[in-house]
Amino acid sequence: MPAVNRADLDFMLFDWLGAERLTALPRFAGQSAEDYRAFLDLAERLAENEFLPTWKPSDSAEPALGADGEVRLHPGVRDAVRAYLDAGLQLATVDEAHGGMQLPITVGTAAMACIMAANIAASGFPMLSQANARVIAAYGTPRQIELFARPQHEGAALGTMCLSEPEAGSSLGDITTRARPAGADEAGRRFRLTGRKMWISGAGQDITPDTIHLVLAKIENDDGTLPAGTKGISLFLVPRLLPEIAPGGSGPNDLAIAGLNHKMGYRGISNCLLNLGEGTRHRPGGEAGALGWLVGEPGQGLAIMFQMMNEARINVGLGAAALAWRGYLLSRDYAFERRQGRPLEDRRAPAPVPLVRHPDVRRMLLAQKAIAEGALALCLYTARLADLAATAGTEEERSRAHARLDLLTPVTKSWPSEFGLEANHMAIQVHGGYGYTRDFDVEQLYRDNRLNPIHEGTTGIQGLDLLRRKIMGDGGAALAALLEEVRATADRAAAGPGAALAPGLRDAAGALEQAARSATGAADPVMPLAHATAFLHAAGHVVVAWLLTDMALVAGAPEGRLWAARHFHDTELPRVAAWLAPLGAGSRAALDAPDGAL
Amino acid sequence: MPAVNRADLDFMLFDWLGAERLTALPRFAGQSAEDYRAFLDLAERLAENEFLPTWKPSDSAEPALGADGEVRLHPGVRDAVRAYLDAGLQLATVDEAHGGMQLPITVGTAAMACIMAANIAASGFPMLSQANARVIAAYGTPRQIELFARPQHEGAALGTMCLSEPEAGSSLGDITTRARPAGADEAGRRFRLTGRKMWISGAGQDITPDTIHLVLAKIENDDGTLPAGTKGISLFLVPRLLPEIAPGGSGPNDLAIAGLNHKMGYRGISNCLLNLGEGTRHRPGGEAGALGWLVGEPGQGLAIMFQMMNEARINVGLGAAALAWRGYLLSRDYAFERRQGRPLEDRRAPAPVPLVRHPDVRRMLLAQKAIAEGALALCLYTARLADLAATAGTEEERSRAHARLDLLTPVTKSWPSEFGLEANHMAIQVHGGYGYTRDFDVEQLYRDNRLNPIHEGTTGIQGLDLLRRKIMGDGGAALAALLEEVRATADRAAAGPGAALAPGLRDAAGALEQAARSATGAADPVMPLAHATAFLHAAGHVVVAWLLTDMALVAGAPEGRLWAARHFHDTELPRVAAWLAPLGAGSRAALDAPDGAL
C-alpha cells in the first residue's frame, strides 16, 4: 500500500491551509495550485518508487565503515537519494536566483512528508542538505554560495550539520573543536579545525562525491585557550573535498569518519563520529587541521546555526508525523481485513468479525488518526508560518508570523515525536503479535520514530525552550495571541456541528493560560521549569485540539475529521489538566528529593 | 552493574510484605527468612553470572531453524537455562511430594524477577516450564505427572503453552486444531492431533532433550465437525519425544517447527509456528497425528489452561517490571556519572554538572523509580495473593485472596507492561543520543519490553477482562473491598509524614469507584467497554499509588520511597481523572464513528 494518503494531504494543504493563496505574495507570483499538485505528484512517485522499496532492506543492512575509512550505504538508499537529486527536488524552495523553483516552504514540507513516510532515514540526506544550503545562501559570501551551496543545489554534494561532540551533546557551550586562523581567500577567512564531532548524520556517504559540513567550533585565543560558553562559538564551512582555491589546491580535506553509531532504528542513514584535523589521512597544504571557511562573523556561530537547527526541528516533527500517519494507514487496513473474535454486543455470532468491529480497535484507529493528522497539520501550519515570516506583505504580518513560529517550533518538534510514537505503539497493538514481528512494517516505524524525541534537542530541551524562553521570556504575549485564535475557533465551532468541541477547547486554553501565568509569576523560577516537559505536552495538546477543530470546520471536510476531533476532545484533552496540575500545585518532589532518594 | 538492587527487593519482600510471616502457614512450616534470602542469593548469582552476560549477544544472534528442522538457540541462552535447571530453581515452589522445595510463590516470584531483569527472553524457558508443570501436577493423572511433570522438575524437559493459531490469536474459540481418539493407556485417553499452533515460545529448543507441550485442541464430533466456541476446547499433553507406553514405543512425536517469528526484541527465546500431525517427519505408531494425552475432561481445556495463563500473565507483568527496574538503575547511574550542561539556577557555572542536577532528569528518575518499584510491588503483592489463595488458614481468607487475585490479574499483567515501557522510554531519554544506540543497554530493554503489552492477552483484552468480567460481572464487590483497603492506607498516611498523599489517594479511589458504578449502571453495556483500556490504566494507577504509599509508610522505609510516592501522587495520579472522563461523559466517538470516518 502507498506510504501516504494524498487526499488527506491535499485536504490539509489546499482546503484547510489554502496554499494557493500564497501565490498572491510576490515571491510566489505566477505559481498556481496546479504547480503545487504537480510537485507533490513528483514527490509521491519518488516516495513510492524509490524510497519505500528500500526502507526495510536498509534497516537490516545498516551503513558500514570500510577498512579504507569510507562509509558504504545500502545501495537502495544511495539510489533513492540519487533519484531525488536527479529529479531536482532539493531545489523546491531555493531562490530562482540560485536556480531553484522558489516554491513555498509549505509545499516543500508537504512533499517532504511523502518522502519521510516512505523512508524516514533516507530522507535525512536531502533534508539536512537543503537546510545546510539555505544557511549558506542566507549567510555565506557569494563565493561561499558558489563553492558550497551550488554543488548541493546541483546534486553534486550533500550537506550536514556538525554541532555535538562526544562530551557536549545538548550543551554546545562546552564544545572544544578548535579553529586556528589560516589566512584568507576569495571565499573568506580560512581556519584549520581540530576536534571530534558526534552524532553527525550523513557525514559519511557515497551518494555524492562531496559532503559540505557546517561545523561549530571555537576560534582559539592568542594564548591558545578557547573562549567560554556559547558566545565563543563560530560557524565554518568544511567540505570533504577542498576546492581549487585551497592552499595546495583541490583534494581531500583533513577529516575522517572515526566510527558509526549503531542505532535502534533510523538505520538507512549513516550517523558518524567525525574527526577533524587528525592529520592521519590528509594534510591539505601540508598542515594538519581540516580547512574551513568562516561563515558570518566570529561568535555568531550559534545564532546562525539556529536557522538550520530550527528548520531541522520542524522536520523532526514532520518525520514523526509521517511515521504516525503511515502506521495509522497500515493498521487501519489491517483492522478492516483481519477477522478475529466476536462483537461485544453479540458474542455468539457465528463467525469472526473484522478487528475494526471491536470498540478498542476503533478507539486506537481514531486516536491514531487524530494524532497523525493533528501532527501533520501542526507541521504544515508551522511551515506556512515560515513562509509568512519571510514573505508576507507587511512587516507586521511577517513579525506576527515570526513570533508564532518561534513559539511553536518546540511544540512542532516534540509533540509529533512523543505522540507519534504513541500512535505507532497503537499501530502495533492493532496488529497483535504480528505487529511485534519484522514481517510487518509497524515494528520498524516504532523503532525509527523512537529517535525523534531525542535528536535536534530532546523533549526536555524543547520544554525548557518553550516555557523559559518563549513564554516566561516574553511574559506570555505570544501565547496569549495564539490562545485568542484558539478561542475564536471555539466560538466558530460553537455555532455548528462541532458545538460539542467548544467548551473543552476553551477550558483547555484557559488552563494553559493560567499555568503560563503561574509559571511567569512564580517566586522561584526553577519550580515551573521542573514541569516544563508536562507544560510542553499540555501546550501541544491544546494546539492540536485547536487545529483538529479548525480542520473539521472547513466546509466539505471529510466526515472523519469531525470524528477524530471529537475523539481527541473526549479522550485526550482531559490530559491537559493532568499535565498542568503539578505546576499549579507547585510540586517540588523532583527538585527537593535528595540525591539518595532518586 | 548488577541487573537488580537486592536491597530494594528485600525491602519489599521482607519489610513490606512480611514474607517470613508465610512460614506460619502449614505449607511453609519449618522454613525461615534465611532460607528465602539464601534462595534469592542463588537466583541473583545465576542472574548475574549466567543470564546477564548472554542477554545482549543473544539479541543479535536470534534462534535459527536448521535444515534438519531443529532450532538452534544462542549457546549462551542454552547454558544459562541449563545452569538454572542444574541448580534446581525450577523446583522452588513445587510440592515436596514431587521433589520440590515448596517455597512460597512470593519468594519464587522475587527470584524470577532477578532472572528476568538480567535476561527476559531466556527467563521465558523456565517460567513457562514451571507453569506448565504446575498445571500437570494439579490436573494430571499420577502417571501423567510422572511422565510429563517429573522430567521438567528434574531438568530433563521444558514445557510450553500452545493456545494461539495463525487465524485464532485472542479468539481461542476459533481454534481448529483437531483431536481424534486413539485409544487409552495407563496415562489416560490418547488422541491424535493435527493443526497449526502460532506464537509458541520455547517450542523449538536445544536445552533439554524433551519439550512438553500443553496444547488446546477440539475433539472432533462423530461427523467429523468440531464443536463450536470455547466450550469445545480440550487440553492435551503432547511431548516432543514419546514415552515407551506410546503405540510403537518411544521415539519422536509427529510435530515439527514450521517457522520462527522474527521479533523486535525478546530474541533469546524461540517463538515458533508449530505444526502438529503433518506426518512428514514422524509417524508414531505408523499413523499421522501428534500423539497427545487428554488432561482433565473433554471441554475443560480452557478452564484448566487459565491456571497456566493467569500465572503467565502475572509473569508478563513481572518481566515488564523487571525491565523497568533495570532501566531505572542504569539511567540513574548514568545520570550521576555523565556531566552535561549547567544548572538552571546558575547557567554561568564554570563546569558541566552531572545530568542528575537537571530537574527534568530528576523527574525522569523519580518517575521511573515509582513505576519500577510500584510495578514490582504489584507483582509481589499479587504473588502473595496466589500463596494465600492456595494456603491461607481459613476458607474465608483463601476466598478473599482469590477474589483479589482475580480482580488484579489483568492489572498486574498490563500496568507494568504499559508503564514499564514508559519507564524504559525515560531511561533512553536520560541517556540522550547514546540511549538510542546499541552500545547502551536501555534500547534493548525498550525493545524487549514492547512485547509485554501484547503476549498472554493484549492490554485491550485485559481491559475487557477487568471491566466486564471482574467489575461489571460482580457488581463491583471485589473492587469495593480493594478500595476499602486503599482508603485505610490513606487514613494511615494522613496521620504521618505521608499526609500530603492522603487526599489525592482518596480522590482517585472515589473517582474509580464512581466510574465503576456508572459502567455497571450504564443503559448500554457496550459504551463503558469502549473505555475499558482507559479504565484499566486508571485502576492500575490507583492500585500503584496505594502500594507506593503503603510501602512509604513502613517504619524505616528508605527515604526514596516517600519521595517516589509523592512524585507519583503529584504527577501521575491526576491522570486517573483524565482516563475516566470519557466514560463518565459517556463518549461514544469510537462506537458511533462510521467506518468511513476511521
From TrEMBL, chains A, B:
Residues 482-593 form the Acetyl-CoA dehydrogenase-like C-terminal domain. Residues 161-273 form the Acyl-CoA oxidase/dehydrogenase middle domain. It holds the Pfam family Acyl-CoA_dh_C. Gene3D superfamilies: Acyl-CoA dehydrogenase/oxidase, N-terminal domain (1.10.540.10), Butyryl-CoA Dehydrogenase, subunit A, domain 2 (2.40.110.10), Butyryl-CoA Dehydrogenase, subunit A, domain 3 (1.20.140.10). It comes from the Bacteria. The keyword Flavoprotein applies. The keyword Flavoprotein applies. Its cofactor is FAD. InterPro entries: Acyl-CoA_dh-like_C_dom, Acyl-CoA_Oxase/DH_mid-dom, Acyl-CoA_Oxase/DH_mid-dom_sf, AcylCo_DH-like_C, AcylCo_DH/oxidase_C, AcylCoA_DH/ox_N_sf, AcylCoA_DH/oxidase_NM_dom_sf, Diverse_Acyl-CoA_DH. One of its GO terms (molecular function) is oxidoreductase activity, acting on the CH-CH group of donors. Keywords: FAD, Flavoprotein, Oxidoreductase. Residues 299-469 form the Acyl-CoA dehydrogenase/oxidase C-terminal domain. Belongs to the acyl-CoA dehydrogenase family. This is Acyl-CoA dehydrogenase. It comes from Rhodosalinus halophilus. The lineage of its organism: Bacteria, Pseudomonadati, Pseudomonadota, Alphaproteobacteria, Rhodobacterales.
